[in-house]
Design goal:
Blueprint: E1 18-21, H1 25-34, E2 38-40, E3 46-48, E4 61-64, E5 80-82, H2 84-99, E6 103-111, E7 119-125, H3 128-137, E8 139-140, H4 143-146, E9 153-158, E10 176-180, E11 185-189, H5 195-211
Parallel strand pairs: 1-6, 4-5, 4-10, 7-9, 9-11
Antiparallel strand pairs: 2-3, 6-7, 6-8, 10-11
Helix pairs in contact: 1-3
């Protein structure tokens, strides 16, 4: 990815939903239990059921196909294209869905420890345990860095939204993970498997580092 391309940030205000931003881990665990998203295991760890999908859904992952990135991608079974129009339609659907929630959760932090290469990431979720996952996975931004935080990448996780008419959006099933390298935006739809958050940013990091033509890569 060219370092000259800036993130196209969607509005992170969603209707009347209350946005709980960068809550402490203990509070997120408490909320996850109260909201029925998980239970405490015998060892005190939070245990959550990811539902139908217990792993990633690579056959339902799509990448926005634009003129700016088309010739840099090996399109096929792994990198499945989705049109900008269908991406826009899914983005509208996700924002409308999230805007009808009473509560949403936002994490802001970093993927990558080196300030020269790391990405600023914002993750918005409908379930509190997904925010806890992001908080545990990524590097938390210092309190003083949160004021005016401008993310490089945004993930919108609508894990309980089901697509009634997948063909209308150019996807295969009731769930979809769609990513845009130019907008620097990921939509996670219909799967509670939290690993989709990690994999999407791992993809973004690798593409960005390769675009810089340097001998660096992210550690998986």
């Amino acid at each position: 990815m060219s370092t000259a391309v800036a993130a196209v940030e969607p509005s992170l205000a969603f209707g009347s939903a209350t946005m709980h931003r960068n809550l402490p881990a203990a509070r997120l665990i408490e909320l996850s239990i109260q909201r029925g998203e998980g239970v405490l295991a015998a060892n005190g760890a939070l245990m959550c059921d990811t539902g139908e999908r217990t792993g990633r859904s690579p056959n339902d992952k799509f990448l926005e196909d634009t003129a700016g990135i088309h010739d840099t991608i090996d399109w096929g079974k792994v990198n499945q294209p989705i049109s900008p129009a269908n991406f826009d339609a899914l983005l509208g659907l996700v924002k409308d869905y999230l805007g009808k929630k009473d509560d949403l959760f936002r994490f802001d932090g970093y993927a990558g420890a080196d300030p020269e290469y790391r990405l600023k990431v914002s993750v918005v979720t409908e379930e509190s345990w997904h925010s806890l996952f992001a908080k545990t996975l990524f590097i938390n931004a210092a309190p003083e860095a949160l004021e005016g935080f401008q993310q490089d990448w945004t993930i919108l996780n609508a894990c309980n939204l089901q697509l009634a008419d997948p063909a209308k959006y150019g996807v295969k099933g009731k769930l979809a993970i769609v990513q845009s390298l130019e907008r620097r935006l990921v939509l996670i739809i219909g799967t509670r498997y939290a690993g989709e958050i990690k994999k999407s940013i791992f993809y973004a990091m690798n593409y960005g580092l390769l675009g810089r033509k340097q001998k660096n890569s992210s550690l998986y």
